[in-house]
What we know:
- Residues 127-269 form the DAGKc domain.
- Pfam families: DAGK_cat, YegS_C.
- GO terms for molecular function: ATP binding; sphingosine kinase activity.
- One of its GO terms (cellular component) is vacuolar membrane.
- This is sphingosine kinase.
- By secondary structure, this protein is α+β, with helices and mostly antiparallel strands.
- The protein folds into three domains: 11-125, PH-domain like (Roll); 131-255, 3-Layer(aba) Sandwich (Rossmann fold), CATH 3.40.50; 267-476 and 487-501, Tumour Suppressor Smad4.
- The chain is built from 14 helices and 25 strands.
- It has helices at 49-52, 71-74, 80-84, 109-125, 145-159, 174-181, 196-207, 212-215, 230-238, 245-254, 282-289, 299-310, 365-368, 418-426, and strands at 11-17, 20-27, 30-35, 45-48, 53-59, 62-69, 98-105, 131-136, 163-168, 190-194, 220-224, 257-267, 270-274, 277-281, 315-323, 332-333, 374-377, 382-386, 390-392, 395-396, 408-413, 439-454, 463-466, 469-473, 497-509.
- Strands 12, 13, 14, 15, 16, 17, 18, 21, 22, 23, 24 and 25 form a twelve-stranded antiparallel beta sheet that branches.
- β19 (390-392) and β20 form a beta hairpin.
- The longest helix has 17 residues, at 109-125.
- The chain is elongated, with a radius of gyration of 26 Å.
- The two termini are 29 Å apart.
- It binds adenosine-5'-triphosphate.
Amino acid sequence: MADPQPQPEVLSESVRINGTAAEATLTGGELSWRPVAGVGEGQEQRLELDSEVLGCRVDGRKLKFATFASSAVANGERPSSVARGGRGKGGGGDRNRRRGEVVVEMEGEDAAARWGDGIRDRLASLGRPKRLFIIVNPYGGKRSGRSIFQNEVLPLIEAAGILYTMQETKHRLHAQEIAHSLDLRKYDGIICVSGDGVLVEVVNGLLRREDWETAIKVPLGIIPAGTGNGMAQSLLHAAGEPFSVSNAVFAIIRGHRRALDVTSVVQGKTRFFSVLMLTWGLVADVDIESEKYRWMGSARLEFYFLVRTLNLRRYNGRVLFVPAPGYEEVGDPVEQDTGVSTGIQEDRSNDNNGEPKCGYVGPSIEEAGLVQWRSLSGPFVSVWLGNVPFASEDAMAAPKAEFADGYLDAAIIKECPRWDVLGLMFQMKDGAYVNSPYVEYFKVKAIQIEPGLRVGSSSKGGIIDSDGEVIARGDGPRSRAAGDEPPEHPMAYGPPIQLTVDQGLATIFSPR
Ligand SMILES: Nc1ncnc2c1ncn2[C@@H]1O[C@H](COP(=O)(O)OP(=O)(O)OP(=O)(O)O)[C@@H](O)[C@H]1O
């Protein structure tokens, strides 16, 4: 039998807290005190180290707690009866946190040093990171990554006493290069101050390393500073926390983590890894084609959605999938005896389109194929595959998605009157759109997309977008001669694109 964890010593002392004489006790993960005179005399007050304290430093006879909690706690004023009201364990108070300071003055420096050690040990036992590598994208979103880092991230990280190395990205795929070559032994986590794109680059960089198996276990963190902040919103929302930079930073400081599914997206020898979503049809068209209206600000998406709905496109094609348990009746059965009828083929040769032969090759579809494949045939208005609930701050595209269930959530719209499409958009905010009879919502272990031409066009296909990057675009036939520029997108539009999920392969800092 394993030895029981040694219980930390209980410390008690007569102190002054924020100037008021009090009896203080440090028990487990909590500092509690009762003022012995004046306001609040005899009333117990508490400070939870895990959910309310950024850090603590000793300054002579004083212990200075940097707090991040409800305003009353931040000033050392909240009575424990209030503190306990309606709060889950480790929940972190009323979520409207503010920075504050609680100063505990001891009678002597020895006592302060002893308490300082006790608090340091307790904070360390919470598994908080000590050294972080922080990647800042100064270019994403509203170009505010740098100022978010300086003004909102750094003060909290410093108050927590975390050592860090910061590097700004200089170009596309720079974050992938950094993650590919970083000395991971020096850090307890890699943090992205960016949109989702940089986080995805980091995952791809780690999985292309020779030591990918250990590298991908390094906890990742995301602090929203992009246009698409779906991962940050998904993590905060799952914990009941409001979307904010400081809540995202505090989640990283607390060091709680959760497993995260990684999807391998494969076409022939081209392979990359996704942690958010893949979309084909309406949503991809709106997302990508509306770029030319960027000058409109965030209204561009609504505007272009309206344009596209009025001229609704439908795409031919087929999706084949291995349904998750409970979804075996979705779609039609696929003949599977020869493999020819499905066209499902695997290339797990560890040759990533000429890149060095190392890194992760993804889970086998054949393993997934132990169960029956099913299919849905187009035309499709929209195909959405999500690994996490939110596609952006205010679009809950896959409301039942879980971080590490080993499945992708599919939301597929086939035939749908255009006014109903418009209605669905308004129900995207809270995910209610999936209850529409026009939306087929189910979970899959693996899925293959066979994208076809737009209905009514003999040459135009659609756009396939994974985690905000266009991976294939059917712009019509283009003659390519030897010496031509390499194709703009990594995959071709037309041949099958396969997705398989590796359950909980990555690790991400999470409020809960
Ligand atoms: N210095 C840079 N110059 C240009 N592009 C960059 C730079 N640094 C990073 N990028 C690229 O910016 C893209 C978007 O980054 P990020 O994830 O931060 O934001 P996003 O929300 O996904 O997108 P958006 O650019 O629409 O805000 C990524 O593909 C990344 O490679």
